[in-house]
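Quick one:
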Amino acid sequence: MDNLFFDKDVSIDILKPMKVGIIGYGNQGRAQALNLKDSGIDIVIGLRENSSSIKQVIDDNLSYLEISEVVRQSDIISILIPDQVMSGVYNEKISRYLKPGKVLLFSHGYNITYKEIVPPHFVDIVMVAPSGPGYAVREEYKKGRGVPTLVAINQNITGKAKDIVLAYSKAIGGTRSCCFVSNFKEET
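Output:
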């Protein structure tokens, strides 16, 4: 099948020269950030000023910046905050700092499917959605296994979106079990 991918099918080399900005450090944000870091990917966490997650980020030996600064500095912006606040944060802290060629990555399709977020035409819009909660994504990764992921491409401006989502899935452990291609609407 050409829509199923496993570790042997994917390289993370495309991510090696990139910086991944993780917006939010909750359920998925922390798990994905730690897995990316352990896979050798350059990451930075984007948080609000006075976020309650700052202590945890420091305890995990990660760096953080204010959200808009992370967007400016990152090639991939992985938005891992709750759906109900995502469009407000996107409009206030993310949208105006996007430049051509950046990648917006989501782990849930809701805000794109229902047009709560309408990104510009000059960025890739992709999704890597683990089929499990963040604690399972992290624990399975640490055991040498992974939680299956669904990947989707909504907009592929760079021509590299498929390689990026597959590499990201591998870097968080998804291709260890299975990564399958779908779309934002089906995931939602």
